[in-house]
Amino acid sequence: MRSPAGPAERTDWSSRQYSVYLRALEIREFSCQEGAERALRAFEEELAGSVWAEKQVLQAARFAIDEEDVPVETGEAGCLLQGKLVPSENRLIKARLVKKKSFFIVATNELDKERLSGKELLEGCRG
């Protein structure tokens, strides 16, 4: 399976694309803790609008199947990354500001307030 392009190679990624890349990192087994931490730092440096929360490097034991089809620990270990993406504080503040400042304009040819009140006009727009 071909590894996806890293975030450093893409500057226009959406949060969905970062999530997909994070999942690819989480299923990848690293041979040493330093390699896993290096990949973690590289990914975090490129994040825009999100934060990698609850991140950790886990030790993963390797197993092989013996002649009797029984899993046996090989004594070798690898490392796995684990965490989750959450919106950054700046992204949340920006979303709140956009929501607070959002408005819409309703245009109508009916200007007689006696025939169509503002409330009736909004109800008609909402459907």
Describe this structure in words.
Helices cover 39% and strands 26% of the residues. A two-stranded antiparallel ribbon has the order 1-2. The protein is elongated. The protein starts with 14 loop residues before the first helix and ends with a helix. The protein has 127 residues and is an alpha+beta fold. The chain is built from four helices and two strands. The model has no long low-confidence stretch (mean pLDDT 76).
What is this structure, in a nutshell?
With 127 residues, the chain is α+β, with helices and mostly antiparallel strands.
Question: How would the blueprint of this fold be written?
Answer:
Layout: H1 15-27, H2 33-46, E1 50-65, E2 71-87, H3 89-101, H4 118-126
Antiparallel strand pairs: 1-2
Overall outline:
elongated
* Main structural class: alpha+beta
Q: What's the tally of helices?
A: 4
pLDDT averaged residue by residue: 76
- Which consecutive residue ranges, at least 5 long each, have pLDDT under 50? none
Rg, Å, rounded:
26 Å
Secondary-structure element order, N to C:
HHEEHH
Strand content: 25-35%
Please report the total strand number as a whole number. Answer: 2
The helical percent reads 25-40%
Q: What characterizes the major β-sheet?
A: 2 strands, antiparallel
Tell me the distance between the termini.
49 Å
The strand line-up of the biggest sheet is: 1-2
What tags apply to this protein structure?
127 residues; alpha+beta; two-stranded antiparallel ribbon; 2 strands; 26% strand
